[in-house]
Amino acid sequence: MKTTTRFLPIIVCISFLVILQSCKKDDKPQTAEQKVDSMMRSAVSPADTGTPIASDGGKVSFSDKAKKGQAIFYNTSFGKIKASCAMCHSDGTNTTKDAHTRAGHTLAGVTSRTATWNGMYKGDDLQKNAYGARLCASAFQHRGDGDLNKALTQDEVESLIEYLTALNATPGAITKNLTIQWVAKPTFKDDQQPDEKLVKPAVKAIMKLPGDPAKGQVVFQSTCSNCHDLKAKKIGPSMVDAATDMSYVAQSIRTGSSAMPFFSKDILNDQQIADVIAYIQSSLNQ
Ligand code: HEC
Ligand code: HEC
Question: Given the CA of residue 118, which atom of ligand 1 is nearest to it?
Answer without folding.
Answer: 27
